[in-house]
Design a protein that fits this description.
The chain is α/β, with parallel strands linked by helices. Helices cover 36% and strands 15% of the residues. It has a single domain, classed as 3-Layer(aba) Sandwich (Rossmann fold), CATH 3.40.50.10320. A 5-stranded parallel β-sheet has the order 3-2-1-4-5, with helices on both faces. It has a two-stranded antiparallel sheet with strand order 6-9.
Amino acid sequence: MDEITGTYDVVVIGPHPDDVEMGMAGTVIRLVETGKSVLNICLTRGEKGTYGTTEIRRREFAAANKVLGSTPYMSDFPDTAVTVDQEGKLKIARMIREARPKIVFAPYHTNPHGHHDGAANVDHFATGLLVRDGVKLARFKSVMPEIPAHDVPYLYYYMVPKSKMPNIVVDVTSVIDRARDSILAYETQMAIQKQKNPILHTLDVLRSYYGLFIGVEYGEAFYSEEAISFGPTNFFGPSD
């Protein structure tokens, strides 16, 4: 696995190419618009996906990040077999120490819903568990002492399950077209359907639903397990 070069304000982590874009593309775009540097980490290469080859999905991932304005980084966890173990936690901790972000996003770590719920993919909540624990390990100075420890002030979860009410919704109405374009960069994945509805339509409906929570046309939902302090100008963390 290559080292991450440079530091970033925000790290977003997804298990597969397209997860971040489908779950929070508008928020990534808005963060970039506020001047934050964003590193988009994909844990797997999507090699077990139904649609597209590994190389095609790598190209799609790069193209989507051009739309988002984020930096792509693809790791080498095994697709369909992201495992919550010490090795994986330490790999996440190493990435966090190399990137040194103030804010980290990951899929929510628990999803009790059925096998037809795409958000309940086993790699999704395994990724959430790995990130939750990896972020903790990243701040322990005695763990991997060859890399300076780093404490992440803010950890937020996307892919909020149906059983949990989000406590953050971001208005993405102004960037919805770019968010769609980042999703459309995954041409192979446009074959996915939910109850005979094209995946892009399903994602639009979901964003419309969350928009209703805050009285806007489109929103993206998140969950924080810790209290959040907001000032008048900050967006997902301090404005400096």
